[in-house]
Specification:
globular, 23 helices, thiamine pyrophosphate, EC 1.2.3.3, five-stranded parallel beta sheet, oxidoreductase, TPP_PYR_POXB-like, TPP-bd_CS, 582 residues
């Protein structure tokens, strides 16, 4: 008699072969066969019980963003499945591999309008690169294996729906998995002739700039070396925060709204932009690039080249290889006036941020909170950043190096991302210090999963910036000359709520309490919630500057500087003139 194996256990063996370590979800009647397999294989795969499937999907997505490896989540039929969508769309839009296992009623109940029965395939068609319902028990491990291969190939979401009874059946133990034989694709080599064309354009430009995206991850030394060698200021996409250290003089920060002042000003003045591993959505829609500039684009995906703007020199290549070869093929530039002007502009901006961070007045300012975060950071931290003003402030105030990790919901920009991402960060990197930074609006959406942090005994420092407002949207209403409506929030004592869930909760109203709270946070073992009551001030709108006499009246400039405490902040034109940039 041939040997058999339970179909769901065979599925777990496939996940193990693909080096899956955690699976996030909530049990349900239509996914009980998967739960039983997780119980049987619990020594090899950790089942993480979340309190909302959305958080499980966020955690799976964050795991993929942080590691480049597959994240896995599941939901039972009906509501368990639909709760996953926010996290899955985040994975889709930020292009990371995630497997979503979806429960379904048993085959004998399908097509009878049974309890919680939905036609789930069409629901997941848009979000997925692979979307199948398992039709036979014997095919279950094969479909899971295929789904994972597709998720990796397309850097997207694979969805497998499993009728519950199929997972309970015994199948021949002759299945196989391809995880152990998976080979990463060879990335394209740069064409030296194209690189020489690019170098010629750079040599002819007066104001050349690098715009680097998430595609330069893992190539920090090459990017910094290229920027130094050719004296090119570097603007980063916001999601790429930390890939090059903030201490590097040529790092201008990010652009558009979740941005720095120098990031926007540098791009506005550029006459040549070299895009490296970036797919910047605001390039055309918000006019963030000088469309008269020359463009060089380096990407491993040919479909991205020319997507956002005209390209003068297209280079299909791995970014690391291309940047290294650009240095090899060129002579070092000893001096570039535009680069010097950018460095001076960034120094002025950093001095402004430091001025805000050094404030000790009450009510507390957001910069003072980030000063404490930077103070207790170890240099090897994981920062899970939620969505809203906290994203903008994190990009500006966090002082990061390339060893630290930064993750947020970038293109989908969904509130509630932080707490699930922090859970994944701590489970994936248990020896690292992990932060969840969230506004009170985002934290209130998902705070039930503090219970997950407590249950898993995860030392996560959750910092809640409480100002009782959806400030990011409030600022948009101001810019659109609307009256504020629907943006005020009912406040809460999040520290007391945390205490009720078994975490350490600390409420902070004053600077003295602020310093003490962060000292305490580093000394406890489990999760901490620091609920900081901050002043309801708008961050300086770097995309709507009113600083330059050439474009703004003296009255506008005075009002702008007064509102944002920016007396020392200079327009970029001051430095362009100082260094006589053509």
């Amino acid at each position: 008699m041939s040997k058999t194996i339970n179909a769901s256990v065979a599925m777990m063996k496939v996940l193990e072969d693909w080096d899956v370590e955690q699976v996030y979800g909530i049990p349900g009647g239509s996914i009980n066969s998967t739960m039983e397999a997780l119980r049987l294989e619990q020594d090899k795969i950790d089942y993480i019980q979340v309190r909302h499937e959305e958080i499980g999907a966020f955690a799976a997505t964050a795991h993929a963003k942080l590691t480049g490896k597959l994240g896995v989540c599941f939901g039972s039929a009906g509501p368990g499945a639909t709760h996953l969508f926010n996290g899955l769309y985040d994975a889709q839009m930020d292009h990371v591999p995630v497997l979503a296992i979806i429960g379904q009623v048993g085959t004998s109940d399908m097509n009878w309008d049974s309890f919680q029965e939905l036609n789930e395939n069409p629901m997941f068609a848009d979000v997925s690169v692979y979307n199948r319902t398992v039709m036979t028990a014997a095919s279950l491990p094969h479909v899971i294996d295929e789904a994972i291969r597709r998720a990796y190939k397309e850097n997207g979401v694979a969805v497998v729906t499993i009728p519950n009874d199929l997972g309970t059946k015994e199948i021949p133990d002759d299945f196989w998995s391809s995880g152990h034989s998976y080979v990463k694709p060879l990335l394209p080599e740069p064409d030296d002739e194209k690189l020489k064309e690019a170098l010629k354009l750079i040599s002819e430009a007066n104001r050349p700039v690098i715009f680097a995206g998430i595609g330069v991850k893992g190539a920090t030394p090459e990017l910094v070396a290229l920027a130094k060698h050719l004296k090119l200021p570097v603007v980063m996409s916001a999601i790429s925060k930390g890939i090059i250290p903030d201490s590097f003089e040529g790092n201008m920060g990010s652009a558009y709204r979740v941005s720095t002042k120098p990031g926007n000003e540098t791009l506005e003045q550029a006459d040549l932009i070299m895009m490296i591993g970036a797919d910047f959505p605001f390039a055309r829609t918000k006019g963030m690039f000088n469309q008269d500039a020359k463009f060089i684009q380096i990407d491993i995906d040919s479909s991205k080249i020319g997507k956002r703007h005209n390209v003068d020199v297209p280079i299909l290549s791995d970014s690391k290889k291309a940047m290294k070869q650009l240095v090899t093929l060129s002579d070092e530039v000893a001096h570039r006036r535009f680069y010097d002007a950018c460095v001076a502009n960034m120094k002025n901006w950093r001095a402004y941020l430091q001025q805000l961070a050094d404030k000790t007045s009450d009510p507390l300012e957001v910069g003072a909170v980030f000063k404490q975060i930077n103070r207790i950071a170890t240099g090897n931290d994981v920062f899970a950043i939620d969505v809203g003003d906290v994203t903008m402030n994190s990009v500006r105030f966090l002082n990061m190096n390339e060893k630290q990790k930064f993750t947020t919901s970038a293109l989908f920009a969904t509130m509630g991302y932080g707490i699930g991402a922090a859970i994944a960060g701590k489970l994936t990197y248990p020896d690292r210090q992990v932060f969840n930074l969230a506004g009170d609006g985002a934290f209130a959406m998902v705070m039930q999963d503090l219970l997950t942090q407590v249950k898993e005994k995860l030392h996560i420092i959750n910092v809640v910036f409480s100002n009782e407002s959806f400030d990011f949207i409030k600022d948009e209403q101001e810019d659109e000359k609307q009256k504020y409506f629907g943006v005020d929030l009912q406040g809460a004592d999040f520290a007391m709520i945390a205490q009720g869930m078994g975490a350490l909760g600390i409420t902070v109203h004053s600077y003295k309490e602020l310093v003490e709270s962060f000292d305490t946070a580093t000394q406890v073992e489990g999760p901490v919630v620091i609920d900081v009551k901050i002043h309801n001030n708008r961050p300086l709108p770097a995309e709507k500057l009113q600083l330059d006499p050439a474009t703004n009246s003296s009255e506008e400039i005075a009002a702008f500087k007064q509102r944002y405490e920016a007396e020392s902040l200079q327009p970029f034109s001051v430095y362009l003139n100082e260094f006589e940039v053509e």
